[in-house]
């Protein structure tokens, strides 16, 4: 996979050289290219922003340098069409499902903005001929789009074949897509078996794979019920098996007339 990032702060993307992403790049699984947007400015101040039409606070990133930058990146491989990812608080939520979808694309171009964002005409221009995604990593506002790029690149890169040491590691991730309901991952433990007077659940020492799998599923339901009840309430009822339903009942959930679960609010075990 090739990943290009156009930014006014190339140094912000230095973490892409370390950890899983850096190792994947070193092994040739990723081709990461960082571009300084100011390279496509033509005044002595390397200006990339200007005041907004209509007035208001803040500055808006100018379309000219963005247009030249994107044209240059696209011209480097004219036979392919990348997916352009625009990090913005006003975009669609970035989810594990979207990470999986993007991980199947051969080329991604990220356009992290600063100030009040990029002149809208840039998105319109490239949206007419490319797959442009406006994506948000959460309901909050950051100083710029570089941090969201780091989040999204890592989420996507770890799904690429060969990046993780264990190819099956991501299959049990929180929010991992599949036939079962999307749940948060439950607690995990490693050696030693006792630490500061705290042991680990006996079932994990039993060697009984079926019981271990059921315990992990129950703990995932418990954690999701506590931290993300919206995931349980919004899930397809068919994604829960009989044992899931028994556990949900213990946690205070009951099926409604439409089959979906709702919180009773009484007798909740957490």
From TrEMBL:
<comment type="similarity">
    <text>Belongs to the RNA methyltransferase TrmD family.</text>
</comment>
<comment type="function">
    <text>Specifically methylates guanosine-37 in various tRNAs.</text>
</comment>
<feature type="domain" description="tRNA methyltransferase TRMD/TRM10-type">
    <location>
        <begin position="1"/>
        <end position="232"/>
    </location>
</feature>
<dbReference type="InterPro" id="IPR023148">
    <property type="entry name" value="tRNA_m1G_MeTrfase_C_sf"/>
</dbReference>
<keyword id="KW-0949">S-adenosyl-L-methionine</keyword>
<feature type="binding site">
    <location>
        <begin position="137"/>
        <end position="142"/>
    </location>
    <ligand>
        <name>S-adenosyl-L-methionine</name>
    </ligand>
</feature>
<dbReference type="InterPro" id="IPR029028">
    <property type="entry name" value="Alpha/beta_knot_MTases"/>
</dbReference>
<dbReference type="InterPro" id="IPR016009">
    <property type="entry name" value="tRNA_MeTrfase_TRMD/TRM10"/>
</dbReference>
<dbReference type="Pfam" id="PF01746">
    <property type="entry name" value="tRNA_m1G_MT"/>
</dbReference>
<protein>
    <recommendedName>
        <fullName>tRNA (guanine-N(1)-)-methyltransferase</fullName>
        <ecNumber>2.1.1.228</ecNumber>
    </recommendedName>
</protein>
<keyword id="KW-0819">tRNA processing</keyword>
<dbReference type="GO" id="GO:0052906">
    <property type="term" value="F:tRNA (guanine(37)-N1)-methyltransferase activity"/>
</dbReference>
<dbReference type="InterPro" id="IPR029026">
    <property type="entry name" value="tRNA_m1G_MTases_N"/>
</dbReference>
<comment type="subunit">
    <text>Homodimer.</text>
</comment>
<keyword id="KW-0489">Methyltransferase</keyword>
<keyword id="KW-0963">Cytoplasm</keyword>
<keyword id="KW-0808">Transferase</keyword>
<dbReference type="InterPro" id="IPR002649">
    <property type="entry name" value="tRNA_m1G_MeTrfase_TrmD"/>
</dbReference>
<dbReference type="GO" id="GO:0032259">
    <property type="term" value="P:methylation"/>
</dbReference>
